[in-house]
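Service request form, structural biology core

Requester: graduate student, group of Dr. S.
Request type: structure prediction, single chain
Budget code: on file
Notes: please return the result as structure tokens.

Sequence provided:
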Amino acid sequence: MAVISTAHPNHNPEPITIEARRLEGKVIFVTGASSGIGDAAARRFVAEGAGVVVGARRKDRLDRLVDELTAEGGDALAVSLDVTDEDSVAQAVEATVERFGRLDGAVNNAALSGSGKPIAETDSDYVRQVFDVNLMGLYYSLKYEIPAILAAGGGSIVNVSSVGGIIGMPNISEYIASKWGVIGMTKSVALEYASSGVRVNAIAPGSTKTDMYDAWLPTPEAQAEVAAYSPMNQIALPDDMARVALFLLSEESRWTNGTVIAADGGQHVGCF
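Core staff response, request fulfilled:
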């Protein structure tokens, strides 16, 4: 750890310390971790010194991820998790505390995509599934993560919304509505627990190369067309989102609370 002098009277009176690893000693719980952003986040957090618990329904993928992380010297645990099942969420958080003794932060990333149809053609049962995963799943996650983080003395939570949580998009209105809900819940819960030392923020990813994205846009031509919506004319990598989540979990963002970072290459500024 490097220490930089701040003798100038206008500087912070405390020395500026630069940590070698920004999550050293912290324990982070990641939902939706079997692929995409969740998988990338777990890898980056372990590299930054965290103990990581990864949860998802596809336990086989989680086990492979944990094997890779531990082989590289990391500390990780895989837990079966269905965010639509309150007991499953409670048990996953309990397993985290049992294994590591504490919980310092979480990335709530589990999500279900939209139907790709106009609203009058959507299936009602599928819409309920989207809301169950994207909103009720977030509610359950926060309900059990926050007490554990409070018990550890405070920490940080990152909720994964979408650029669709900031703007409208056609043919996935149920997904868009749920992601707007993620942002509303983020801002409200941030106010509820700010004085207790728990920060709650969100990231709004734009087009990102994940399994969900590939299923939505299965051809290179379709992906190129969507990439063109971004001023940067690119599709992000999952690790690009993991880097933003890392910032929000670390002490570098200690004065950031209740905000939404649009990690979308400028897409929300006015490309549609």
